[in-house]
């Protein structure tokens, strides 16, 4: 999802690759330039945020996600990437 979001920002002209340095910076830019601008649905923006929360808990608190949460996150990632590919084709 992070790579797809980064690609969407770059393809849309909203950001240069070197300006996106952190996950939180990427999510903020994605929300500001693509979600709030109406180029990406609010649901996709929320999914990106939620999956990032799950990652942070797993990475920094050491609390593994349960199967249901993981299955949900994988489904969201698939939908997210498909939507980005459809809305921001590579030139």
State the share of residues found in helices, binned by percent: over 70%
Helix and strand content put the structural class at mainly alpha
Largest sheet: none
Q: How is the quaternary structure best described?
A: single chain
Order of helical and strand elements: HHHH
What does the overall shape look like? globular
DSSP E strands, number: 0
- Give Rg in angstroms: 13 Å
Low-confidence stretches: none
Give the integer mean of the pLDDT values. 94
Assess the beta-strand content as a share of residues.
under 5%
Number of helices: 4
Distance between the termini: 20 Å
How many domains make up the coordinates? Answer: 1
Task: Provide a compact summary of the structure.
With 91 residues, this protein is an all-alpha fold. The chain is 71% helix and 0% strand.
Structure in words:
71% of the residues lie in helices and 0% in strands. It contains four helices and no strands. It is globular and about 40 Å long. α3 crosses α4 (67-87). The chain has helices at residues 2-12, 23-35, 42-61, 67-87. It is mainly alpha-helical. The model has no long low-confidence stretch (mean pLDDT 94).
Task: Identify the notable features of this structure and list them briefly.
single chain, 91 residues, mainly alpha, 4 helices, 71% helix, globular
List the helices and strands and how they pair.
Layout (H helix, E strand, L loop, with lengths): L1 H11 L10 H13 L6 H20 L5 H21 L4
Helix pairs in contact: 1-2, 1-4, 2-3, 3-4
